[in-house]
Amino acid sequence: MTGNAETIIYEDHETDQEAADAFGERMVDLLNSGALSLMLSVGHRTGLFDTMSDMPPATSARIAEKAGLDERYVREWLGAMTVGGIVENNAESGTYYLPPEHAASLCRQSPTDNMAVFAQYIPLLGSVEDDIVHCFKHGGGVPYERFGRFHDVMAEDSGQSVVPALETHILPLVPGLTNRLGQGIEVLDVGCGRGRALNRLATLFPRSRFTGYDLSEDAIRYASQEARALGNNNITFKVFDVSRLELADKPGPYHLITTFDAVHDQRDPLSVLRGIRKALADDGVYLAQDIKGSSHHHGDRDHPIGPLLYTISCMHCMTVSLAQDGEGLGAMWGREKALEYFQAAGFRTIDVHELDHDFQNYWYVCRP
To answer: Which GO terms describe its molecular function (predicted)?
Structure first.
């Protein structure tokens, strides 16, 4: 090895030392950010951010007391929040303070901007790392049941990204849809999860009838309990493998079919889409939310959360499909591939929408 202050040569490869140092610094930042993501998730799940958002500067003991948590753990968590620049610490008084500008992105009081919800994906995915490494070596996939809190997190995600925008942004994508729902139509949500969006629609439009399908028994049980609690008598949730929708004798007709971030992780996405087309009334509309991507790695370099989405795809969306001997399409299948699949399923008119508040998704309005 020979070199000087600017250049190091390893065998036949010349390395720019300044670039190498800069990348090393970036790696340190990545490690710190990954660690902070774990602590953000803890702060969200324990309610510490919500507790501190309503408090003046306080000691760790006072914060722990108000949150109903163990002080020693809270104190160490506050250390991570302090050095991470999330919480302010007054050394003289020994107090900690969550600035309102930070609380706006970390608390449940911000129903559409709570980034701590998304931080939960990091420990969730980390819990299956051993399984994923095994799949890298031997193929196959990791089944849904290995992701213990996935439906919890997805319900929170939907609760702040989809549900609040239904009336104001999503339904207006289809002219006249709100009026039709008010008059009464048949609606199906494919891959409904815990049914947050569908239960909201059922509450808003009591004259319409709603059906939700999902493969998870736990998710369907939760959705049904919420429907009863809300007094929604116009909704039915069923455990159903939506890849079999295409084979059903009489799958409809439904006047509106929705999928909220649910197509790309199916065992056979094209079969699901064909089933949706088969179940749709001639004058019906299929409204699909799915991840914004380009279908090409180089096209996603400027995506604001591209690394996060590809990681979620690799460690959840793709692998749960492969675990069913499926296609393994992945979350980042992208706009081009989505349009190809919608057309192959029999949709002739496809409009692609983007919402100002939603940088993560495309919204597809598909008609026969």
So the answer is: methyltransferase activity
